[in-house]
Specification:
Low-confidence stretches: none
Number of strands: 2
Number of helices: 3
Radius of gyration: 12 Å
Strand content: 5-15%
Structural class: alpha+beta
Helix content: 40-55%
Mean pLDDT: 95
Order of helices and strands: EHHHE
Amino acid sequence: MTALPVQSGDRVLLCTDGLTGAVPDEQLASFISEQKDVQACAEALGQLALDQGSRDNVSCVVIEVVEG
């Protein structure tokens, strides 16, 4: 297992290759940073993949790190 150092405000994307195969990394990073709500962001990422021609299943979770 590998630890991922994070800080408040970071976002982590967990997704299938149905998303990463259809949308370039740079576009994903830009899209995620522009969205305010992580749930809406995840839903919109799925649609973005479909709009860009993904032929695979698309699943994703966007996690935002907040201070506790």
